[in-house]
Automatic annotation (TrEMBL), chains A, B, C, D:
InterPro entries: Bac_transglu_N, Papain-like_cys_pep_sf, Transglutaminase-like. It holds the Pfam family Transglut_core. This is Transglutaminase family protein. SUPFAM superfamilies: Cysteine proteinases.
Length: 262, 262, 262, 262
């Protein structure tokens, strides 16, 4: 399916402020970017670079005043995410070198503290996809998904204690549980077609059967329409904005996803 | 200045043919890509990757029939290229690691055979920018620039013997001469505003005074309006199309560059 | 100064166990490896790779039985680490792209929770080296350095609450405090000449004045004799051993550092 | 088999001269470096870096006087190189991204000029390993291998005209022929057990059946005992020494390869 995605953001910047932005999707294994637009005002010098996870980022110093960022892309993505109940656990020694880092605990995914819970959730499951499926199901029925309920990222331990969270929070807990079973898992931020309420979204991917699969405990049914803009260990790596210095007031944050072709 | 550049290509493909394409400009030190569109028909699976020089490339297998590729970008680039007669030669030991490869001889730039000529051309010049300027001037007055005069890349030795060539040929000879003086030099392909006749273009960059500078013996005066789509050692690395298998007939090749804003 | 460093480890492996090891130092800006030996028994297939931080790692599956790893290197390193009280804070927009990741919070360095404490510790200090020096001094006088007091990594928040820790713990807190002030900081594990008791060691580096400087709150005076074997965001990235599966009993762990030449 | 390899070089340097050296073997898919020593005198500042092909290189400025480089390694390598007559040609669209560059023509391998000869040599051969085998056989019976017969690299075209060459020359022609058939091929320099006369050696690898295979037209029979120190497109990339400036006189060049264990 072909989606047109866009972000329309405006900020009130009180003093010159360095920004790092991650909002420009790239073509990859699961999506093709046919058209892409990225407009920042006022006119300023922008440096684009690729971070250690392969994400396209922009750096600039926003001057005092209103800052607007408008980005839109036309993206070909799958109508249904791939599901493969038979995808087996990949033994550590057979993981590709560049997947190994997704086994490590990270800021918001303290996987070193979740081994007991993960074993309980996945008891009697065949190692691999079915374990991750059990984790996703457990999240869906145990952690209440409440969009807008948190502003700052919370960690897997905190989410588990609180019992509720935003999309990012559920992803953090899902990732921590997977990694505690030695299943590589990573955070993804991006867009999702028909997300309600519409906003930027976060989900996770797990590496089983020799490739990455999408999991999203905030949704039901086997839906597709995902567009990735950033990958990383957790929300620390894939902040769509990192802004340094005094608080910046958000004046507008408007996200759209529209299907333009089959 | 803001330029809108575009390529509109059509080919007649007689049997399924693998292609590797390098036609999608990236934001970099000297240009910012605000808008980008890349359309290929018929609909097929495309893999986008970054090559060893940082260029964005697309791979696909074109089926039998007509293949069209249309790409366009809105690019902010300099109205005048930087000129710095005082930029000194950088001693080998002070070159960045990733610049060293641009000292090596390559397929079409046999720099290991040009030391005498380079010394003659640059006699009494201050090492650095002024040597490269002397090389550019020598090319301009010695090698006739005849657009359309060659189809396949010719090497620096061949160009020097022939005394004429297309933009790519002049760049090859300029690069070979620079490298023979231990000045790193690289090939660039892309667009140039007001190029006559309009087509894809090629020029070279030399590393002096701690950065890359643009040189183009096919043009006179200090003009800007360059948009890069690929960098490499020579035309072997920066072919805008690499096609494998039987000959593919070009049905259309239309390039435009228009100024859209100051 | 020239140091001969070595590790002599033995483990009792109960069932075939995948290992990832980070114990082979590399030549770098601050050290030159003249000689290097890395012996693993029994004989097995080993894959060596470079991780995302540039560390040299080895992967293998240890069979049931005794596993021994012996590694030794002759290393040229500085007799005194560089100290530069005048090294200024580097504004975010001037940091190199590949240093930016060291600003992010990580598993054991929750820098997003330390802004108040960092400001208190560094009040009236000139931004840059002097802030980091104040953090190191504060650590030295506030957190008791008790070698052997913890086995598993503890995070900056936990260390701050506990008031004591091993070298790794002090480094975690130092890193979190630096990052909360937007000073890039990274974890280093390796060897230190004359460390008492002798063991593998951990310290941190902060990026000020355009380069990395060594800080180590466990030592007093301006000493050198550091040999790095791994860099990363925190102990999650720079574990000298990652072992997957059932517990492995350590039979021997013997570390030596000897000066062999001036 | 376990080999102890060593280089013992001495040069008379007339004025301070920048060097780039590629003589330190790395562990890889086909070899494991257990011990490694790299000694340069006089004492000077050395920077070690990894080039674009993954080779470990050292940069330094040799002062006036005698320069000695001594390097030795203990290496586990195969007693027999892998042979697989059934390894098929890999279609372009199935080659890994990072193998694609080995299809391109390069300084000393003008593969764009060898299509007719390659087709003649490999007529009726099954695409893949058997084509490369035919090329190796053709080289062995057509191009006389005369160690020491050339000092500077010569290109595939020149070697083909001359009908004789050193190991490097035969490799260049073999690589050019493979690439002209769209088979990725790369140059390797290193050591070979029982090479006569003993010296540094060069051979080539071709990518068929999903991996690299060793080919060496200078040897007969299926031997092993290869130790790689550098990979690249051709001799331009894998010079064991690149020295910039006035001629440096070689005083000693002594290479040894000894079997130390089975």
């Amino acid at each position: 399916m072909w989606l047109r995605v866009s972000c329309d953001f405006a900020f009130d910047v009180e003093s010159p402020t360095p920004f790092i932005v991650m909002l420009r999707p790239r073509s990859g294994a699961e999506q093709w970017i046919e058209r892409d637009e990225f407009k920042i005002a006022p006119n300023m010098s922008i440096i684009e670079f690729t971070d250690g996870y392969g994400n396209l980022c922009q750096r600039f110093v926003a001057p005092k005043g209103e800052l607007t960022i408008y980005t839109t892309s036309d993206v070909k993505t799958s109508e249904f995410v791939d599901v493969n109940f038979g995808a087996p656990f990949v033994e550590i020694q057979h993981l590709p070198n560049d997947v190994l880092c997704y086994l490590l605990p990270s800021r918001y995914c303290e996987s070193d503290r979740f081994n007991d819970l993960a074993n309980t959730i996945t008891v009697n499951k065949i190692p691999g996809y079915q374990q991750v499926q059990a984790i996703e199901d457990w999240l869906r029925y145990t952690i209440s998904y409440i969009p807008g309920s948190s502003v700052y990222p919370t960690s897997a331990i905190e989410v588990n204690q609180k019992g509720s969270g935003v999309c990012r929070d559920l992803a953090h807990l899902g990732i921590a549980l997977c990694r505690s079973l030695s299943i590589p898992a990573r955070m993804v931020v991006g867009y999702l077609h028909n997300l309600k309420p519409m906003d930027m979204h976060a989900w996770f991917e797990a590496y089983v059967g020799g490739r990455w699969y999408v999991f999203d405990a905030t949704q039901t049914g086997v839906k597709g329409g995902y567009v990735s803009v950033g990958y990383g260990l957790d929300a620390a790596d894939v902040a769509i904005f990192n802004q340094f210095g005094p608080v910046v007031h958000t004046l507008k944050q408007h996200v759209t996803v529209t299907q333009i072709k089959n």
